[in-house]
Amino acid sequence: MNTLLMPSPDTGNPTLADWQKRSPSRLGRWLFARALCRRQPYFRSIKPHFLELRPALCMVAMPKGRSTAGAGNTVHSLAIATLCELTASTVTEVTLPPNMSWHSRGMTIEYLRQAESDVTATARLDKTDWGEAQNVAVPVSAVDRNGREVVRAVITMRVEPKRT
């Protein structure tokens, strides 16, 4: 049974409930990432590792490896963009109230320097007023292993009431 589809009585959000259930263990965090990537297969290519997830905050790491390699021993810029999109979409999913839906609308991204190590992205969504359809900007910062910011992105999400 896929627990990502079962809402939690505490949160009302199946993704957040699954994270809360699995996050205490390393295996659980790995299983959470695999389950999320089954729903959104493109994200599997970056081999994400979820570090923290709660309403308004998501942190995801991406290891430097063959599937994320760019030219000259660096992490490919599109792999980092994919990491930013995953982080922003996940924080949006767990932050929205159950009567709202979302989809990605656009991305603005600044490549500040080359990443030569694993990359960690952090997305914050501090919005609390969800009354009507709107575009919401989700800021994402990606840093390398030394804490240097390598990418700054803003992912625009279209948020609207669910159709009944």
Please describe the biggest sheet, giving its number of strands, its sense, and whether it closes into a barrel. Answer: 6 strands, antiparallel
Q: What is the overall silhouette?
A: globular
Could you state the CATH homologous superfamily?
Hotdog Thioesterase
Q: Could you say what the CATH topology is called?
A: Thiol Ester Dehydrase, Chain A
**Helix/strand/pairing class, anyone?**
alpha+beta
- Ends distance: 26 Å
Structure description:
The chain is an alpha+beta fold. The protein has one domain (3-161): Roll (Thiol Ester Dehydrase, Chain A), CATH 3.10.129. It has three helices and six strands, in the order ααββαββββ. The chain has helices spanning 14-22, 26-39, 77-95, and strands at residues 49-54, 57-62, 100-111, 119-124, 134-144, 149-161. The protein has a six-stranded antiparallel beta sheet with strand order 1-2-4-5-6-3. Helix 1 runs antiparallel to helix 2 (26-39). The protein is globular and about 50 Å long. The model is unreliable at 1-9 (pLDDT under 50).
Please render the helix and strand layout as text:
Elements: H1 14-22, H2 26-39, E1 49-54, E2 57-62, H3 77-95, E3 100-111, E4 119-124, E5 134-144, E6 149-161
Antiparallel strand pairs: 1-2, 2-4, 3-6, 4-5, 5-6
